Amino acid sequence: MAAGQTAIEMKGITKIYPNGVVANKDVDFSVNYGEIHAVMGENGAGKSTLMKMLFGLEKIDRGQIYFEGKPVHINSPAEAIALKIGMVHQEFMLVPSLTVAENMMLKEEPLKGIFIDRAKAVEETRKISEKYHLPIEPDRKISDLPVGMKQRVEILKALYRGAKILILDEPTAVLTPQETEELFRQLLLLKESGHTVIFISHKIREIKQICDRITIMKNGLSMGVYDVKDISEADISRLMIGREIKMNLDKKPASPKESVLKVEHLHYGYGEGKLKLNDVSFTVRSGEILGIAGVEGNGQRELLELIVGLRKIQRGSIHIREKDVSKLTIRKIRDEASTAYIPQDRLAAGVAADATIKENLLSNRLSEAAFSQKGVIKEKELVKKAQELIEEFAVKCDSEKQSVSMLSGGNIQKVVVARELSMPRDLIVIDQPSRGIDIGSTKFIHEKIFELRDADTAILVNSADLAEIMELSDSLIVLYEGEIVAYFKDLNGVTEEQLGEYMLGIKRQPRETIREVCYEQ
């Protein structure tokens, strides 16, 4: 089909969940071949649900989808793929133990008799890679690839299956500035070849940089379609949220005091071929936010999970308020070492999906005298506190009785943040504080983090969003291949591009500078 011709139309789309929540109401949406079209909106605005219906992951209750002018019914991802629609999810759907070629050909394997033709799979991978100018090594294992390359495999996988329309969900969330620029270059090449890209993002600056048109969602409704060149960032914010959000936060200078967290000579990953953490040492003091920057997969997740007890220490030591973490259970680290934890994977480690919002918000408080007496739970007090937290943290829901699984990803994140940041703690460990949430919620969470720091809490934060980690951090370490390769005592004059060079292993500071993060504090 020619560039500029309508590819997809969605007319009068309505989606109402069994609990009565209206995700989309009479939404019209269309994209043309050869354009990059942004979809923006707050958490719970309905943008993800709309895209899930287009890809066959959700059922439409009312309305019609048209593909190249003809009405179609998309009841599964297989039917969407047959219509040349592909989707790259924020959490990649790749098998880490398989090679690039094996992932590319999964369920489409070329055969030689009754056996898989591996040479043909490698050849086909090279062909599709060359066709779209997206270089990749077919024989490399997915587990050995950086995040940007994994994303490239997902894009190539969709293109190999014939996709002409690509839905990208928060595609830059885990990329360095250099990887983001490379992705944008690839998307522009796809656009020039007549492909359509639907770009879901919370980053207004990126939308302005890469997209042609934008559809803005609010409360399940479409707020209109706009040419990106004709609409300002302030107008986009107002249409999404109802007011302009400015992220210039009132952050006071830090006043660090005594050491709260001390990590010394930490090693992890013995027996896995390559250490995930190699001689990592640092301290975090009360009244300070220490940030961790790094491309995902360079040891950040393992480091944070070791600190909160989700992994067992193999070599080295971790002390919180002089307590040896290796001798404590997860519960004792939370209670006796006064530690809170916001995990990267909110569904797997942050909530009990089938439990209610109230149960998730207050699961760490049931032993408090305010909520129980002699083993008897004070239900009215629990309900009251849950409602207070829902209001304070702006969790969009019907009531505290609603199942967490019925919430949008961003609102699930708010439930986790509300539980972990609403209790006084000496140390807070945060992995991706605002992943998948809108600008208004991000501002609120950042302000809460600053408030806790100013109340003398020690805070350790990991974020793949460089703008966020630079906004939050008082000082910063950069992890590459499990080692600290840079330490910045403050971030005055440091740019995202400079950090990206350390994150990609292009640069490394002298060991004397890096030692300061542990021994000078």
Largest sheet, in brief, is:
6 strands, mixed
Figure out the total of helices: 18
Strand order of the largest sheet: 6-9-10-3-11-12
Provide the β-strand percentage band.
Answer: 25-35%
Shape: globular
Q: Give the mean pLDDT.
A: 88
What is the β-strand count?
A: 24
Structural commentary:
- There is one protein chain.
- The protein is built from 18 helices and 24 strands.
- The chain has 521 residues and is an alpha/beta fold.
- A 6-stranded mixed beta sheet has the order 6-9-10-3-11-12, with helices on both faces. The protein has a 6-stranded mixed beta sheet with strand order 18-21-22-15-23-24, sandwiched between helices. Strands 2-1-4-5 form a 4-stranded antiparallel beta sheet, covered by helices on one side.
- The radius of gyration is 24 Å and the shape is globular.
- The chain starts with 5 loop residues before the first strand and ends with a helix.
- The model has no long low-confidence stretch (mean pLDDT 88).
